[in-house]
Amino acid sequence: MNAPAPTTPSRVPPGPRAILPGRILYRMSRDIVGFLTAVQQNYGDVSHFRIGRRRLFLLTHPEHIRQVLVSRDENFTKGPALRMAKVTLGEGLLTSEGDFHRRQRRMMQPAFHAQRVAEYADTFVRFASRTRDRWTDGQVLDVRAAMTQLTLEIVAKTLFDADLESEVREIGEAMDTTVTMFDRSRSPLARLLNLLPLPSNYRFLRARDRVFTTIDRMIDNRRGQRPNKNDFLSILLRARDTEGDQQGMTDEQVRFEAMTLFSAGHETTANAMVWTWLLLSQNATAETELHKELDRVLGGRLPTHADVPQLAYTRAVIAESMRLYPPAWIVARQAKAAHAIADTGFVIPTGGVILMPQWIVHRDPRWWPEPDAFRPERWVEERKDEEMRRWGDEGNNRPQPSSPHPLTSSSPHLHSNRPRYAYFPFGGGSRQCIGEPFAWLEAILLLATLAQRWRLRRASDDPVRLHPTITLRPRDPLPMRLESRCPDCR
């Protein structure tokens, strides 16, 4: 392992110390990404700081992250922010722990098998095609609002088998309100603030109840319908714990799991698409290569699931976008017992909160040449290099390198010399995102369908500011101008 060890072992890692009370909290509230990046640059792969009585530990080496997420995952629970999310998500898959989490994951896993996910490909393409047909040449749109509407429509169809187009704007605003409340979770006063009669709390409760009402209506409608429907909601209602108590989920539990899928199923993909459009608009070479592949593979027709293995560069664009702008930009855990960080001499005490930011690890020059450059080809090149090493140089018997298939591997191919957790946009270990195959397929087909006909260009010179809440999104609207690739195709 290449993690640097301190010259003098210490039980407490180094880190910033605030002279004034609340100074660190203030800096984090102003720019948490910049603050954590500065801490890592100044203090290395293991560092420590306090916010009030809460002790936080920043880990940025892939091996230390692997220990927490994989080899010692039973020693950790979700971080405080996600525990606070139970007011919205209950004991859903994102927030539950222990045996109950394992039971729920067993029951939900069949809904995410590759064959089942593949059945949604036509839905992804149909909704993306409908969106691109509504766009007009020269139109300026807020790309985040546009991608959010698209992914909300898709998740409504795949989760509920319902077309909620007429309600999408209202539900989208309600979901946005519930997500932004996670900003408060960084404050040591969060629990107290949540109990006060603040306007923000009333807005949150109204928004949460709006989404709950929609989901409860869908559950009521689904009860008594034919049992062979294959939307996610029907699968949840039919699920039984065949390895445990043979029982299913209560309506309340179905609601919480549906709420989790509804929230995560549109928010992360929408943000991934936003950052992808921004990066493509800034990198003409990558955009040109993407369009060449789409023209060659699709020949002007809409993509299908069968095309996905051939869309290697399209997939690489998504992979590189999520490297630079990971929608889930940080993972947090809390230690149930003291945890010794291997080969460092440092110990995380019971109750210590561990922060593992993809934003920092994905940009580490030790693992990523030209770490701040948008280079989708790095994924294609590394795949070819690895296959050549695997097969060796055996003359004409050597097979041609193949494109990675998004449903047969949990993440894009990683170079053999790069640690596994140098790239973890979907987390890892026993709590790795259950919807990862769904997300990969959706993002690839959305990009292929939309980029086949359109380019997007910045319509403003304003700097793009980050809003790192539970996901990484733009802080402000992101206006972009549409440019048709085929002005006569309509």
Describe this protein's structure.
- By secondary structure, the protein is α+β, with helices and mostly antiparallel strands.
- It is 48% helix and 10% strand.
- It contains 18 helices and twelve strands.
- The chain has helices at residues 23-43, 62-71, 80-84, 86-89, 98-108, 114-118, 121-134, 143-160, 168-180, 190-195, 199-222, 232-238, 251-282, 284-298, 312-324, 358-361, 377-391, 436-451; strands spanning 46-51, 54-59, 76-78, 140-142, 330-335, 339-340, 347-348, 353-357, 454-458, 466-468, 472-474, 479-484.
- Strands 1-2-8-5-3 form a five-stranded mixed beta sheet.
- α11 (199-222) crosses α13 (251-282) and α14 (284-298) runs antiparallel to α15 (312-324).
- The longest helix has 32 residues, at 251-282.
- The radius of gyration is 23 Å and the shape is globular.
